[in-house]
Amino acid sequence: MIRTPLRPLARVLDARQKGENPDAIERENLRLRHEAQRDRMRVRAESRLLLVAICFLMGFGAVGTRMAALATSEAEEPRVAVSGTSILNTRADIVDRHGRVLATNFATNALYAHPHEIVDPRAAADGLAEIFPDMDAEALYRRFTSDSRFIWLRRYISPEQEQMVHDLGEPGLLFGPREMRLYPNGAIAAHVLGGAGFGQEAVNAAEVVGVAGVEANFDETLRDPAREAPLRLSLDLTVQAAVEEVLAGGMALMNASGASAVLMDIRTGEIIAMASLPDFDPNARPRPLTEGDQADSPLFNRALQGVYELGSVFKTFTVAQALEEGLVSLDDLIDTRGPLRMAGFAITDFRSRGPEQSVHDVFTHSSNIGTARIAQLIGGERQRAFMERLGFLAPTTIEMIEAPSGRPLWPARWGELSTMTISYGHGLSTSPLHLAAAYAAMVNGGTLVTPTLLRTDAPATGERIISERVSAQIRELLRAVVTDGTASFGEVEGYSVGGKTGSAEMPRARGGYYEDRNINTFAAVFPSDDPQYVLVTTLYEPVELSGPEPRRTAGWTTVPVAAEVIRRAAPLLGLRPEIEPTPALPLSSSSN
Questions:
Q1: Architecture field, domain 239-572
Q2: pTM of the entire structure?
Q3: Domain-by-domain residue ranges, the chain?
Q4: CATH top-level class for 94-232?
Q5: pLDDT digits 0-9 by tens, 401-421
Q6: Which whole-number Å values give the CA distances from 265 to 41, 293, 455, in the listed order?
Q7: Which residues contact 568 (CB under 8 A, 6 or more apart)?
Q8: Which of 284, 271, 280, 286 lies closest to 301 in space, CA to CA?
């Protein structure tokens, strides 16, 4: 290392000996030192500036590269990273066809306790038992004095209950915010909506999941955070309420154990109303039965899950198929002498009307023997194929999680006897919803419709089942059943109604049938001259007791209830009543 002296001492001494001024030498030396120092500082500053420039260049380069990468990538929903719970508690509303709320969310709180923070366990236990009568004060006290650090008390509470708990002033009683599912209309459309409950839970959040009905079927869709619009159903809330009210009154009046109704648009397949009684309140959904017959539970949807032999309402399909295939005409005479015996089984009529009847009269007066004769002309193979095309051999595809459980039942061997009994509704068990869809195809011009609970405005473009000509004949026959046949109580002033009755004995659990227990059905269409809706009403074990003897047929029990449903629902559906024109007054002249 070379050391540079601060003063050029040798030059100073030499200058003194020569008599020169040494200060000039020192000033020159100082100048040279300053210049050298300045050069070093300049180099250092330039180096630092270069380093800073490189850093800025690298930073802007990284930002530019990231921006270019984002600009060339596909758009993606932003995700918010949060610490804590990952429970997703959003859920979209459900509304009817007009936007009226059927299901929504309600902000509430859960109630839990930290026993180690409870000041007075006895007072806290007594206070909670007073607020919540189903809680036991002694059991609460034992839990509050245990070694537990955390205790769930209520999964949700009302605002009034929250205030009362707050007024206890106990620091160990705490609230956890959450949302619960609220059904503001109570039990209306309970079986369609199904209900929801809590899935994954934490102190400050809870997952709301569907447990039945459309809530379960559309669970993933309703829980999608990106969904903003509510789920719009095909139901009409006012019509649904009217149907349930009338059905409940009819069920009580006819001493029935249960009832169901399906009201469907015959062109779109939209379900306007679907009711099953007894029902329940989805805000307090009961637990499923753990033993016994599930059909005894109010959770059981008779309109969808219940499969039954529905009786003479099936004669419509037998006559329609025979007319479509050219096997008979409405004026052809059919042998109705009875009883008709086949394989040891006797087919009889409720009331004999002579040895021969026209096809029109066989249908209007509901002759089992005549219908069985027509079925013989059709044959088992063709009958089964027709029933399959109508959807009677598979569950419906309606948007409810319970739909697969409504699986029809039919004989393993579809022989001649089965062909004859199925022709008038015995031997094939199906649901009222199946029946409604099939009747829609019979009267809408002959095309199959698919039942749906989603709002749609476009007519269904299903498979053609029968021709428009045969469909028009079926409409005439259904009207004749009301005007001249077994459904005379089905007349509704201002609205022409057509339909077919069906009475079937209820099967015993161990085989055979009850003689005094029926399942009675009335499949109605209205207005009959230009049908827009089909209504399938079913009463279970009804009996009409106003006369000297109990009456259990559909004409006496189910038909009047269905007529009242139509009377209430038709104006709500926007159908104008038919008003007969007032006869013109005769002109008169007078002379003075």
A1: 3-Layer(aba) Sandwich (3.40)
A2: 0.79
A3: 94-232, 239-572
A4: alpha beta
A5: 999 999 999 998 999 999 999
A6: 92, 33, 11
A7: 242, 243, 245, 246
A8: 280
